[in-house]
Amino acid sequence: MKKTLQLESISKWLPTASKPIIISGPCSAETEDQMVTTAKQLAATGKVHALRAGIWKPRTRPGQYEGAGEEGLKWLVQAKKETGLPVTTEVANAAHVDACLKAGVDILWIGARTTVNPFSVQEIADALKGVDIPVMVKNPINPDLELWIGALERLNKAGLTKLAAIHRGFSSFEKGPFRNAPMWDMGIELKTRIPELDILCDPSHIAGNRELISFISQKALDLDMAGLMIEAHINPDAAWSDAKQQVTPANLAKIIDGLVVRTVSS
Ligand code: PEP
Ligand code: MN
């Protein structure tokens, strides 16, 4: 099969002793204390390989918490200093990229509402030309595999090789048990099209509630996905965004402990 992308495996840029790779942290960085305390509790579980937090939040409706902005980047970097864990946040434009590079963010991710827009993805790719930083690309909010692949290609053409995909489910008018329909076939088809691409799963945004996170995480591992990005917060019910789907660091540890990592025979 023709190689479509030049990629470096996630095991090279987020080396971990154990599979699956776990990225965790709050949906949003809210205050320095919330960020750093959550990070320390996550690090203390010994099960987390990188910290996440949203700094610029793409809210569906106005009037909700839209993130701490650049100030929040300092908290994220402080969390990194205190835990030794690499940190990742969402970027949606060139200004976000520049601020993250200046602050020392280790890994970037592109959110579902940005992957849909080739202008925005190209702007991010252009801002990252000549920069060697890992970028994770969430699926677009609509089930369009070509848009997902197109975003990865735009970054790859700009010279970025440390790329991974994040399967976070798809928006649907029909309401089922999930906030976003998993449509697992999309991730499977992406892996078929680009076998060398590592795919992580974001069970938090698929589920929309904390009760379904274990089930979705196990499904992702059974599909041989490389890891999980799970939202965690010191006080989930009081979170300023995505309160229903966040778990405490202690519960994150329980979820991870309950997962069965099966060896897929080829
Ligand atoms: C998030 O990770 O908090 C987020 C906004 O994700 P998504 O782009 O998947 O909606
Ligand atoms: Mn969220």
UniProtKB/TrEMBL annotation:
Its EC number is 5.4.99.5. Transmembrane segments: none annotated. It is an enzyme of class 5 (isomerase). Keywords: Coiled coil, Transferase. This is chorismate mutase. The lineage of its organism: Bacteria, Pseudomonadati, Bacteroidota, Cytophagia, Cytophagales. The chain holds residues 1 to 266 of 367 of the full protein.
